[in-house]
C-alpha cells in the first residue's frame, strides 16, 4: 500500500473533479485525483469505433453554457455548429411523416395552441425559480408533490400536446417516464437551461460541438495535473476526523485535509465512510436515481438526408427513437446520425437480442429518413446503464417530493468532505457546464478555508 499526502484528494476524474483539482492547484494546493475507470472523463467519452470517431457520452455546447465556453477557450479548443440546414421531420401517432420548418411541430391548430400555451405557462413558472435553489420556488412543495404527467393532464386534455411537451423533459432530458418525477423537477431542468423555451429549442440547446470531441476537456485538464491523476483506483473507504481525511483504494492511501467526492450520487454509497455519513445524506441518496437512455450512433458513407433537403433533425413521441440529429463530425465526408431511445422503451429493446434491437432501432430511423437509414457502415449503442461507475444516463434526479425535501442538502459538506458533480448543479444541471460550475464553486470554498502546505 503506497501512502501519499496532499492538501485535497478528489474522488472521480470527470469534468467536475478535474476542474476542482485544476483550480486548487492554481491556488497553490496539492491534489491527488483518484479515478475508478481506466480513463478520465466520466460521462464524457470520445472514442474510435470501427474507424469512426463517436461521442459516446456528452457532446453539445449551448450559448448559455458560459462556464464550459470559458473552459474551452482556456484550453484552446475550437467548436463548430451542428448541421441544421433544411427541413426537420415529425412523425405523428398515426405514423404520418411531415417535413417542417421552425420550432413548433406540424400538428393540428388546436394542438399547436395547446403546446404554445403549455410552454408559456412553464416559462412563467421557471421564471420564478432560481436554478441553484429550486426548493425556494414559491410553490415548491406543491409542485414537487405532483408528477409532471399529472400536471400536464390537469392543464390540457390534448393528448398529442401532452405527449410532445412530456417528450422534451421525460425522454430528452431526465430520461424517465413523466409519471416518475415531479413538476418541480421538470421546472428545475428547464431553469437550468434558462427557460422551458430554451429547452425545447434544438437549435439552442444543441448548438455546437467541439472539434475532436468534448472529452478533450477532461483529457487536457488531466494532462496538466500529470502524475497527480491516478487511474484504476476505485475508492473503497474514506476515514475522516478533525485532522483531515484518508481515502483508501486497493493500492493507495491518500492523507489529505479535504476530500471532494466528485461522482454521481448513486455511487456515493459504494464508498464506506468512517464515521458514517449523517442520516440526512443517507436518506437523500435513497431518493435519487439515474435515468436511462440509449444513445444510438449510425454512420453512413454520405449524409444522404442532406441531398433530400433534410437537416437531420427529427422528433416523435410515438417512435422508438424519439429524437435524432445530424451528428456528422467536423470535415468528415461521411454522415452520422445520432438518435435516442429512452426510459421504458430502452427497457423494452434490451429484452431483445442485439441484432433484433439494432433492427428495431434502424427501422425507427428509417421512418424519418427512408430505407437508406437501414444500412449504416458503423453502428454503435452507448449504454451507460451497464457502466459500473455510472449506472445510468444522463444524470440522477429526485423522486416525487425529493427535491423540495432534500435538495438544499445535496451539496452540504460533511466536515472535510465535499460533494461535486453535474447531478448536483443548478445552472447547467446534468450538463458539462454544470459540472464545471460545481467544481469551481467547491474548489473556491476549500481555497477560502486553507493555505498551501509549507
TrEMBL record:
Domain spans labelled Amine oxidase: 16-446
Gene Ontology MF terms in the entry: putrescine oxidase activity
Keyword ATP-binding: no
Binding site for FAD: 16, 35-36, 235
Positions annotated to bind substrate: 340
A Pfam cross-reference name: Amino_oxidase
EC number: 1.4.3.10
Keywords of this entry: Oxidoreductase
Domain of life: Bacteria
Cofactor: FAD
Family according to the record: Belongs to the flavin monoamine oxidase family.
Protein name according to UniProt: Putrescine oxidase
Amino acid at each position: 500500500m503506497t501512502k501519499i499526502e496532499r492538501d485535497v484528494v478528489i474522488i472521480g476524474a470527470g469534468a467536475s473533479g478535474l476542474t476542482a483539482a485544476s483550480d486548487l492547484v492554481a491556488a497553490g494546493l496539492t491534489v491527488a485525483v483518484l479515478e475508478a475507470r481506466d480513463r478520465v472523463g466520466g460521462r464524457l467519452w470520445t472514442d474510435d469505433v470501427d474507424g469512426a470517431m463517436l461521442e459516446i457520452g456528452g457532446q453539445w455546447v449551448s450559448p448559455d453554457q458560459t462556464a464550459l465556453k470559458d473552459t474551452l477557450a482556456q484550453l484552446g479548443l475550437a467548436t463548430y455548429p451542428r448541421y441544421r440546414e433544411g427541413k426537420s421531420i415529425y412523425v405523428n401517432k398515426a405514423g404520418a411523416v411531415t417535413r417542417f420548418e421552425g420550432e413548433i411541430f406540424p400538428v393540428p391548430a388546436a394542438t399547436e395552441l395547446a403546446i404554445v400555451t403549455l410552454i408559456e405557462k412553464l416559462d412563467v413558472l421557471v421564471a420564478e425559480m432560481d436554478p441553484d435553489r429550486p426548493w425556494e420556488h414559491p410553490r415548491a412543495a406543491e409542485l414537487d408533490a405532483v408528477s409532471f404527467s399529472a400536471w400536464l393532464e390537469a392543464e390540457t386534455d390534448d393528448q398529442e400536446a401532452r405527449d410532445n411537451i412530456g417528450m422534451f423533459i421525460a425522454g430528452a432530458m431526465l430520461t424517465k417516464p413523466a409519471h416518475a418525477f415531479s413538476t418541480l423537477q421538470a421546472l428545475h431542468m428547464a431553469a437550468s437551461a434558462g427557460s422551458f423555451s430554451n429547452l425545447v429549442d434544438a437549435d439552442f440547446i444543441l448548438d455546437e460541438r467541439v472539434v475532436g470531441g468534448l472529452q478533450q476537456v477532461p483529457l487536457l485538464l488531466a494532462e496538466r495535473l500529470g502524475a497527480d491523476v491516478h487511474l484504476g483506483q476505485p475508492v473503497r473507504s474514506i476515514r475522516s476526523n478533525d485532522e483531515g481525511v484518508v481515502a483508501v483504494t486497493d493500492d493507495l492511501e491518500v492523507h489529505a485535509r479535504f476530500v471532494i467526492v466528485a461522482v454521481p450520487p448513486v455511487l456515493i454509497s459504494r464508498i464506506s465512510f468512517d464515521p458514517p455519513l449523517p442520516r440526512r445524506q443517507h436518506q437523500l441518496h435513497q431518493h435519487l436515481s439515474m435515468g436511462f437512455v440509449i444513445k444510438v450512433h449510425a454512420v453512413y458513407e454520405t449524409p444522404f438526408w442532406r441531398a433530400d433537403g433534410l437537416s437531420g433533425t427529427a422528433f416523435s413521441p410515438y417512435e422508438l427513437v424519439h429524437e435524432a440529429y445530424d451528428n456528422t463530425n467536423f470535415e468528415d465526408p461521411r454522415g452520422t446520425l445520432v438518435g435516442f431511445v429512452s426510459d421504458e422503451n430502452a427497457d423494452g429493446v434490451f429484452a431483445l437480442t442485439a441484432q433484433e434491437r439494432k433492427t428495431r432501432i434502424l427501422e425507427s430511423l428509417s421512418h424519418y429518413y427512408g430505407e437508406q437509414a437501414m444500412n449504416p457502415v458503423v453502428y454503435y449503442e452507448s449504454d451507460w446503464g451497464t457502466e459500473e461507475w455510472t449506472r445510468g444516463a444522463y444524470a440522477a434526479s429526485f423522486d416525487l417530493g425529493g427535491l423540495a425535501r432534500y435538495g438544499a442538502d445535496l451539496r452540504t459538506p460533511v466536515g472535510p468532505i465535499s460533494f461535486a458533480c453535474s447531478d448536483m448543479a443548478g445552472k447547467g444541471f446534468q450538463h458539462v457546464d454544470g459540472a464545471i460550475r460545481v467544481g469551481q464553486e467547491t474548489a473556491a470554498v476549500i481555497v477560502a478555508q486553507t493555505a498551501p502546505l509549507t
